[in-house]
Design goal:
Blueprint lengths: L1 E7 L7 E7 L2 E7 L5 E5 L14 E5 L2 E5 L6 E3 L15 E2 L1 E4 L2 E6 L1
Antiparallel strand pairs: 1-10, 2-3, 3-4, 4-8, 5-6, 6-7, 9-10
């Protein structure tokens, strides 16, 4: 797996998403209020727009989530599964913090 350095952890605001391109994959990178990192596909499967990084970060029964800003479907940040429609899913990418740098990989 090839890890790509994205940014310093201090440049990634809590509770917001940042769009990044990892080896031609549009990725939405998130840092939650408790410093967990998540990386999911940035393209909304319902409308085809690259907007997931601009979604609302929250949780549903303890599951960290992002709600699409377009049609408001909610996705798990852990699994990418749409919690409103079992037929939809976002790709999930490995993400890690090494020292003060956030890295994402695509398989």
């Amino acid at each position: 797996m090839n890890w790509q350095q994205i940014c310093g952890i201090d440049l990634l605001p809590r509770e917001y998403g940042v769009p990044v391109l990892v080896q031609d994959h549009p990725v939405a990178l998130f840092r939650t209020h408790d410093d967990q990192l998540f990386a999911v596909g940035n393209v909304d499967p319902f409308c085809g727009a690259g907007v997931i990084s601009r979604g609302i970060v929250g949780d549903r029964s303890g599951e960290p989530t992002v709600a699409s800003p377009m049609l408001k479907q909610v996705f798990s940040l852990r699994t990418g599964q749409c919690l409103d429609d079992p037929n939809a899913r976002l790709p999930v990418y490995p993400v890690r913090r090494r020292a003060d740098v956030v890295e994402v990989a695509v398989p």
